[in-house]
Design brief:
593 residues; alpha/beta; Alpha-Beta Plaits; TIM Barrel; 3 domains; 8-stranded mixed β-barrel; 5-stranded parallel β-sheet; 47% helix; elongated
């Protein structure tokens, strides 16, 4: 298991003794055209505990040897024939593998311009020839300590001490040839804490960081090869763990014999990280999802393996299985489709590919259409008809739902205002709102502007939000909804009963309407059917002063049942499927006779 030492500032490294182990292991490269000089320097440094030297007297060979050996520090003479120290410094700074290697210049020149030129090329320090042994030891020690500190900052996450993504990629690059030589496989996993944003919102960033640290320790502990593989484990199995973003980690384990071993690790990670973590005396629970790609079956390139694991993670987040998923070619095809949707959505409005349809909202008591729910449809030039449950999550993730939502609101309000004027009744319009729109700082201004522009009274507009959406960061959403309510419109909670609402919160939301999800209505198959959950939800809503809309009414039996419960409104194919503006106008005309 790769684990980073926790390093502090270079100054502290020099005083607390933690640089000492680095001295014996540090690889020192000495480049000087006078072999006697390198021999003297080696003698000095050996007395200080250094033992790993690379000496070069032919300066034209220095860069090739440097690329092969990758020393920790270079002691470099400036004035050399054929290839000078300046030439070597210039080439080092242009090579991504060499540019971070510190160079200490050894020179007999005291010319200020010479030193300035070397500093501009990246030289870290200077020593005058002849070199003072004690000064050399001190400068070298400080340089190694500074490099260790810099290496730590660049490569390791400061909170958890885990490798950052770039070092993780390097570690996999180094491990895969050994795994291939052993004729084994390896699993690359992307591990995500699903509810991290909610935890940060409820606990604050400081306690959120405590949870991240505890989670990372659990992840490292439960992914130890011996713990995961049991008797199948051996000393050759490597496991590298990384924190690649705020709520996302990655790990690689191999060589493995079967994919089942990777599945065993994924299940163990989900179980162990799902156990409560105590933060400030409060038990917190994390929800973990994992995407897995497999070497060499899914890919042989490191970057592709990571990309495939990310794709598998997205499927695991949408799935209802065990919380992890392996990559498959089908996922790659779907990822390409999602990318095409992302690109297409950015121009869908201006290309007139989006369409607003309307499904009637019907008065249960008298069968009259009293309004409609506006529903978006997308017919792409390139992809054809795309169902809303495919493109709306993409729009939300990319933020495109904000301009698209504003466009839907404007189009629907124009239509509702027209029907209100044409048919002479208080037409009630319902428009769905996403979480991205709700947290958009301009939401209230957008609604006010559209209502003013279209002439639709605020009391004729209902904004529909899903149960899970309003419960995420509930306190902030209560405040946002009150702001929208102050405009004069109504708020409806959709998909009720399918999420995790707290009744205490439900009472605090400024809700006017509750929609019973069609999954509960489907239980009503004939006159003998009972739907106690529907009965309970209608009763609850009425007790809280809300009207009730039953979704998915397709039969007379279902309509009769909700009528007995005094349910006020319904939507469903019994009246009409969602239709375009002209067809909806015909429905209203037929109703008027």
């Amino acid at each position: 298991m790769q684990n980073a030492a926790q390093l502090d500032s270079p100054e502290k490294l020099e005083t607390d003794g933690r640089y000492e182990p680095l001295i014996g292991n540090a690889k020192i490269m000495l480049v000087d055209d006078e072999p006697l000089n390198t021999e003297v320097l080696q003698t000095y440094l050996s007395g200080e505990g250094y033992s790993n030297f690379v000496t070069v007297s032919e300066s034209q060979e220095a860069l090739e040897i440097m690329r092969r050996e990758l020393p920790d520090v270079v002691l470099l003479d400036l004035m050399m024939p054929v290839v000078s120290g300046f030439d070597i410094l210039t080439a080092m700074r242009e090579d991504h593998r060499l540019k971070t290697i510190p160079a200490i210049i050894l020179t007999s020149s005291d010319d200020a311009d010479t030193k300035l030129s070397a500093l501009k090329l990246g030289a870290m320090d200077f020593l005058a020839k002849p070199v003072d042994a004690s000064e050399l030891a001190l400068r070298l020690r400080n340089t190694i300590a500074a490099k260790a500190y810099q290496h730590h900052l660049i490569n390791f996450d400061q909170l958890t001490g885990l490798a950052k993504q770039e070092l993780f990629v390097d570690n996999i690059h180094a491990a895969l040839p050994h795994i291939q030589y052993a004729e084994g496989s390896a699993a690359v996993m992307i591990v995500r804490i699903e509810n991290m944003s909610q935890i940060n919102n409820s606990l604050g960033r400081d306690h959120g960081n405590e949870l991240i640290l505890a989670f990372s320790r659990k992840l490292q502990s439960c992914s130890q090869p011996a713990e995961v593989l049991g008797n199948d484990s051996n000393g050759n199995v490597q496991c590298h763990v990384s924190r690649i973003s705020g709520d996302k980690f990655a790990l690689m384990i191999g060589p493995l014999a079967t994919a089942q071993q990777a599945a065993r690790l994924a299940r163990r990670v989900i179980i162990e990280t799902g156990k409560p973590i105590k933060i400030d005396g409060q038990a917190m629970f994390t929800t973990t999802r994992i995407g897995i790609s497999f070497f060499p079956d899914d890919a042989t390139q490191v970057e592709t393996l990571i990309s495939h694991a990310e794709t598998a993670l997205q499927h695991a987040r949408r799935g209802s299985g065990e919380g992890y998923m392996f990559y498959a070619d089908e996922m790659n095809a779907e990822s390409s489709r999602i990318l095409a949707m992302e690109n297409g959505l950015r121009t869908a409005i201006e290309k007139n590919e989006l369409l607003v349809t309307f499904q009637p909202k019907v008065n249960v008591a008298n069968g009259q259409i009293i309004g409609a729910e506006a529903l978006i449809r997308w017919i792409s030039e390139d992809l054809g008809f795309i169902p809303p449950d495919e493109f709306i999550p993409v729009a939300e993730r990319t933020g495109m739902i904000v301009p698209i939502g504003a466009w839907i609101l404007e189009q629907a309000c124009h239509a509702a205002a027209h029907w209100r004027q044409q048919f002479g009744f208080e037409f009630l319009l319902a428009v769905n709102v996403s979480i991205r729109q709700l947290i958009d700082s301009d939401m209230e201004a957008t609604v006010k502007s559209v209502l003013k522009q279209t002439g639709l009274p605020a009391e004729c507009l209902t904004l529909e939000l899903t149960e899970n959406m309003v419960m995420e960061n509930a306190e902030a959403n209560i405040e946002r909804l009150h702001g929208l309510k102050n405009i004069g419109l109504k708020i409806s909670i959709d998909d009720f009963g399918t999420g995790y609402s707290s009744l205490s919160y439900l009472q605090r939301f400024p809700l006017d309407e509750l929609k019973v999800d069609r999954s509960f209505i489907n239980e009503l198959e004939d006159e003998t059917s009972e739907a106690p959950i529907v009965r309970a939800m209608v009763s609850l809503a009425h007790d809280l002063g809300m009207r009730v809309v039953a979704e998915g009414i397709e039969t007379q039996v279902q309509l009769d049942y909700i009528k007995d419960l005094d349910c006020e409104l319904y939507q469903g194919y019994l009246c009409s499927k969602p239709v375009v503006i002209k067809a909806f106008t015909d429905l209203l005309s037929a109703q008027q006779g």
